[in-house]
Write a structure and sequence with these properties.
This protein has about 170 residues and is an alpha+beta fold. Helix content is about 25%, strand content about 35%. It contains 2 helices and 10 strands, in the order ααββββββββββ. The strands form 3 sheets. A 4-stranded antiparallel β-sheet has the order 5-6-7-8, with no helix packed on it. It has a 3-stranded antiparallel β-sheet with strand order 2-1-9, with no helix packed on it. The longest helix has 30 residues. The protein is elongated.
């Protein structure tokens, strides 16, 4: 450690600043390239080709174009969404700074008890309530691809999801 400090002290102030700036620029460029690679991997499919279904019973939940990222939650904007699912209300709501969890949302199939996520009421809007979907409980039918695809986290989805400023 003492040797490293002596080496840094031996470098002139201007040269040290130049080296630091070069390293910062290199790190920023590496970060931007990594973001481009992630975006390229993520946008391999089109959202209008995606059907979102229950992971267990494969009953339809919504289309990929109906998904919206709102803060840290991913919600379905389809007005008929709540008719395709079952909602179980909490006796006492879980209160957070920007949201309240008012219940749980389950798959609409009576024989399936898969939990799709919590029922969330957003405080910034006038009592806007919807389901915050859990990616782990959903499967995705993408275009003509045979079978269903699952993702562990929303960031790994292969189609773009619209983001709303929160």
């Amino acid at each position: 450690m003492k040797e490293a400090m002596k080496a840094v002290n031996a470098i002139s102030g201007d040269d040290l600043c130049d080296r630091i700036k070069e390293r910062q620029i290199q790190l920023i460029n590496d970060y931007k390239e990594e973001l481009k690679r992630k975006e390229k991997r993520r946008n391999t499919d089109e959202a209008h080709q995606v059907d979102v279904v229950c992971k267990e019973c494969k009953s339809f939940v919504c289309y990929g174009t109906d998904l919206l990222r709102k803060g840290t939650n991913y919600i379905c904007t389809d007005p008929e969404f709540l008719t395709r699912v079952r909602v179980q209300e909490y006796q006492r709501h879980q209160v957070y700074r920007d949201t309240d969890n008012t219940g749980l949302v389950y798959c609409g199939d009576p024989s399936c008890r898969t939990q799709l996520g919590p029922m969330v009421r957003f405080k910034k809007e006038a009592n806007f309530s919807t389901c915050a979907l859990s990616c782990k409980s959903l499967a995705f039918k993408i275009g003509t691809f045979p079978g269903y695809t699952t993702f562990k986290i929303w960031a790994r989805c292969s189609f773009p999801i619209e983001t709303e400023p929160y």
